[in-house]
Amino acid sequence: xxxxxxxxxxxxxxxxxxxxxxxxxxxxxxxxxxxxxxxxxxxxxxxxxxxxxxxxxxxxxxxxxxxxxxxxxxxxxxxxxxxxxxxxxxxxxxxxxxxxxxxxxxxxxxxxxxxxxxxxxxxxxxxxxxxxxxxxxxxxxxxxxxxxxxxxxxxxxxxxxxxxxxxxxxxxxxxxxxxxxxxxxxxxxxxxxxxxxxxxxxxxxxxxxxxxxxxxx
Length: 217
Fold this sequence. Notes:
Layout: E1 3-9, E2 14-20, E3 25-29, H1 36-48, E4 52-57, H2 63-66, H3 69-76, E5 80-82, H4 87-96, E6 112-113, E7 119-122, E8 125-131, E9 140-144, E10 149-153, E11 156-157, E12 160-161, H5 171-180, E13 190-193, E14 199-200, H6 201-207
Parallel strand pairs: 3-4, 4-5, 5-6, 10-13
Antiparallel strand pairs: 1-2, 2-3, 7-8, 8-9, 9-10, 11-12, 13-14
């Protein structure tokens, strides 16, 4: 059975997710751990559950989602997967990180590119990939059919959507991505966003002011 553990890290209150199943193999998404105590919190949970990390995956590569990339890669000797269009986004973090107070940021190079046509396999689990650009040019979402878990990054939030005013963002593209890709998932799909609480596809279809039935735009 697939299980999910969430952590909230760094001043951006970013959600980092671990997915793991009965095999004890695990995948980590968007490690935002920057401070030592955040890194220790992550390590302690992984050790307490005897998990074996297999992959490190970035839904997208804005600073708050990649602060812990180097730490996780070094600690667990696992590869980093991103979409090819996120590589420039990732490289830019080193330039502006000090401006946000992250002078100790350490960059980590991706090992492999992934795209919508790929699958993520670990233990007894297979995840589908959806391409959902708009918040960033190569944003990906990860979906598990059996449990309805969706790791959504910064696309769809409870009652909101991702910002589109950063380089590579586009508002209409994001709206189209959500409506065509994410809203194609079952309504009981559990959406775990990059910030804030979990929501569902059905709830957002009905109530989201940007893409729901009563959308203002």
